[in-house]
Amino acid sequence: MATVVWSESNLVGEIVHDNIANANFGSNDSYEIVTSTYPIVGGTNSFGKYLRVKFTGVFTTISNMLFWKLSGAYGVGELVKASGNATYATPSQTGTGDSTVPITEGTALAVNSAEGAATIINGGSGVSGYTGYIRLQLQTTGSTPSGAVAQKVFCLQFDEV
Asked: What whole-number distance in Å separates Cα of residue 135 and Cα of residue 103?
């Protein structure tokens, strides 16, 4: 069975942090953000999040990788935008132009391996074990109340052989 951890990449030149504890949105480009330290002001965006899943351990293939928002209500003027298989760029608060993250399996974002293949093959030549980047950004309007937003749960579903 594969070992699965979430990873986040940050900063100029990309620093990768494996096995992160949270993917909180905030007004700073760092991982495991404490939202009270880096709050998002209504009418602005969070810094973009570049997340991947890393598969290690004993498995043959990982395939059919799908990403969507499983639960958590949006507040007034708040949306989470997402792109599957995004190209890493230094995260910023500039709007990404991405679509709102899907909320059902049927409309989920298809995610490939970091190398662009639809399947991650364990031990395959040139295979990192990472998925492609899932870029997320919390976007707000001037009507979004200040303070913490409701928690959201995101899902990466996959088949493992």
From this structure: 16
